[in-house]
Amino acid sequence: MRLSRYFLPVLKETPSDAQIVSHRLMLRAGMIKQASSGIYSWLPLGYKVLNNIKRIVDEEQERAGHIPILMPTIQSADLWRESGRYDDFGDEMLRISDRHGHEMLYGPTNEEQLTDIFRSHVSSYKQLPLTLYQVQWKFRDERRPRFGIMRGREFYMKDGYNFDLTKEDALHAYNRHLVSYLRTYERMGLQAIPMRADSGAMGGDDTHEFLVLADTGESEVFYDSAVTELTFGDRDIDYGDVAQCQAVLEEFTSKYARTDETHDAALFEEVPEERRKVARGIEVGQIFYFGTKYSEKMGATVQGPDGKPTPVHMGSHGIGVSRLLGAIIEASHDDKGIIWPEGVTPFHCGIVNLKQGDDEADAACESLYAQLTHAGLEPLYDDRKERAGGKFATMDLIGLPWRITVGPRGLKNGVVELTSRKTGESEDLTPEAAVERVVGIYNL
Ligand code: ATP
Ligand code: MG
């Protein structure tokens, strides 16, 4: 992409109504625009990152054997009356009626909708196990929408639902989700710690929330600092292997880590004092096992091996796809702007032409642009007739992890400059070596 032709409405001023850094930076970098309270348009740069996050979520879900579908945002109230949640959900649910007077709602989540699909099409235990998921917009009429897309009213969420014959199978599905979530967040450059949580309106006993530690987080968390030393890394995992998934769950959940809803002061005291931490966190996901709560109410039964109708064991699992943009920025920025982790960056590399209009500099930039593109990368070429300072400021603000700077002086010596956004370190390289380095970083 050439910046002169792109739509990147960066703001010079810091928006005064944005209270936290991720919100400020998303507005300044031209990623989002508020449409009304808690509802946002996604401008090109923000939309690109949103899609990158979705792609990682999709890849990791499919790797775990979960099957993507898409359900509507507008649902029928009748379905929610069956589960009893139409009234339970209260004011957070946006209720609508259509021209025929039918009561509808904008889905805050989809347990009912999916249970309905399940009961219409699955009748035998032989069709189990089954896990379906979607990435779809949700609406919750939050009392206090704030922090930009972090607590929106309309937000993008991955929600998955498992159906299993037995509790053991459903707990394996729970573990599979925990493992796949660990991988998902790490690929986004984030540490998200599974913490024992409260199941709230979902019901059920087993639930973990995934929290990214950040001072601006809305949840108070209590943990043993040893949990922050755990990383999933690129270990091989067989999602069909019950013992292996269980071992990962135990490794990542045996240290004390809880949100304030389930915090147990006496248990916490058992953690050595120097490792006892009280901090704040951003909830970026949650997994639930809730047994037969929905299947019994909504008649989601299968014929069991004994020929008898058996209600299925279920769980649901959510990732805050749009909230993740905010969480990543909270975890990765400096006073100049965003620092995107390579896994989610909107463009792989920036190219800054220090002297637009200079034949040699222009030709060198065009050549870099062509080589990077040919290698399968997406560079963002700042080809505007602007001062170098302004170009650097824009690149730093939008946070591309790598920048290649091209100017007549360097070119005289046959070099361009490759700079890391994260460390600020620069290196002079031949244009070919710079391309090779960047391609190598992205492992293409
Ligand atoms: P919270 O406690 O933050 O209100 P929740 O526990 O009600 O969230 P879940 O039903 O667990 O939310 O939804 C799954 C994920 O969707 C959450 O972990 C969170 O990352 C994201 N999410 C929930 N509500 C919002 C919102 N209003 N704006 C953006 N993301 C949200
Ligand atoms: Mg939650």
CATH architecture of the largest domain: 2-Layer Sandwich
CATH topology of the largest domain: BirA Bifunctional Protein, domain 2
Q: Please name the fourth-level CATH homologous superfamily of the largest domain.
A: Bira Bifunctional Protein, Domain 2
Please report the first level of CATH classification, the CATH class of the largest domain: Alpha Beta
What is the tally of helical segments?
A: 14
End-to-end separation: 19 Å
List unreliable stretches of 5+ residues: none
The molecules bound to the chains, other than polymers, are: adenosine-5'-triphosphate, magnesium ion
**Average pLDDT number:** 96
- The coarse overall form would be globular
Biggest sheet features: 9 strands, mixed
Find the structural class using helix and strand composition.
Answer: alpha+beta
Strand content: 25-35%
Total domain units: 2
**Helical proportion, percent range:** 25-40%
